[in-house]
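The authors assume throughout that readers already know how a fold can be written as discrete tokens. For illustration, here is how one protein appears when written out as sequence plus structure tokens:
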Amino acid sequence: MAPDHGGIVTGSSGSHGGTSYEERNIFTIFNNKNFTSTKIEKPVDPTTTITGKFVNFNSNSVYASTANALYNFGTSSFTVECRVKTSGYSSDPSLVSNKNWVSGKNRGFVICANTGGKWKVNIGDTQNRVDISGGTINDGKWHHLTLVVDRTEKLVKTYQDGAFVGQAAIGASFGSLTSGLPFAIGQDGTLTYGANVNGNIAEVRVWNKALSEASILSYTCSSVTASHPDYSNLIGYWKGDNGSGNSFTDSSNQQVALTFPSTPSWTTSTATLKCGTATEVVPKMVDIAYSSLQWFGVPINSGWALDGRSWLPTGN
């Protein structure tokens, strides 16, 4: 048994019907005569403290960019990650993007802040668009956000603080994401979008492959090093903690510096970051269909691209 939706409670009121992580997060009750009665409490996620001196993105004229075509992905798979810390913003400012964000159908991708204190991702090819909403980020804490575009599985996936948020299918006909515009942090590809996030953006990572969930989870709260299993696919890595100057240093082998149009202000900051864990101890919404099919003995076709896990008891 499970409710049809999660919710967000504020005081005595709540919400129903949204697509954020909180509104998709539900409880589940599994019943079988062979089960041992067990209550699994919601786990307390581990956290770490992030301290450093970061750029204050307090204006839409504060951004770092490059015109390097390396970050136009065409019809290839890729992954983009970033961290953001903000206590407020208006509209839907871009965090990391290479597209004209005036329309979601424009070619390219964007990870952006969203209305209601949340975030979202978008990709477009001029004819089609995909949008996935994430959870709350305007709480003054660091949040690790991930966009995965997997052309092999034909899926777009998102993660927040290492936890799976949502996914959407993209057909084989979904076209090129090459916008021909700059890759930017704190702006969209036009470098003129009229909204800013008012906070810090750091740990921006770009990969020319669709990272696995395990890789994302393992490095949510740590820096990327040469021991990362996908290190050879890292094509951009801007830690954003230089502390001074007018550029973001690239720590990947590509060495593509992102430059600011003028020297920004750098702010010393200390805040927490929730760390995802690769060992899940409670079912998630996506596990229900997967587990139910296995319990009923229905073979699961890999072509269905189900993102859940089986909670079939050991020995049954």
